[in-house]
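Need tokens for this chain, all 196 residues.
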Amino acid sequence: PPDRALGPAQFGGNPGLRQALTAQLDNCQCLGRGDRSGADTGPGGAIEQRRLAAILSADVRGYSRMMGADETGTLNQLKAHRAALVPLISARGGRVVKTTGDGLLVEFASVVAACEAALDMQRLMRERNSGEPDARRMDFRMGIHLGDVIVDEGDIYGDGVNISARLQELAEPGGIVVSEVVASSLRGKLSASLTD
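Here are the structure tokens for all 196 residues:
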């Protein structure tokens, strides 16, 4: 595949292939060499910190309605659920970037870890919601995307974050929606099945 790097042992002694690759490399512009005048910079000329991340966005279905009916009770319930979910996130190597109202933004280094954590969280929420009347159920909707993010003072920004939030909006209550790039990365690596 074109995205797989070839090491010296993988040339198989084919001098034609070696020459073709050498010619292609000679015509490439390499990142990280020469001056950085074209590099993205942040405030004060500092170079932006970027990384590839699996991003999970989550929110609670009907949270505004619940807050309208009982602000204090709803907030206490949300805090208790979050306190129960954070260890599941940490166990899979995730980092809670921020919480906003009923929203949760989480970063993972691995797509598989992000999806496993999302499944763990939804399983736990099913247990925690069992026996609750519909008006008191907190059903999370989750979206997961793999994308490049800008890191700034512990927060993350960029299209990857926006896409995960849009995917979360498409999810059914108690469900998880993943982008195509996440779905392709998961093939054969997750016990749960994916549906289109």
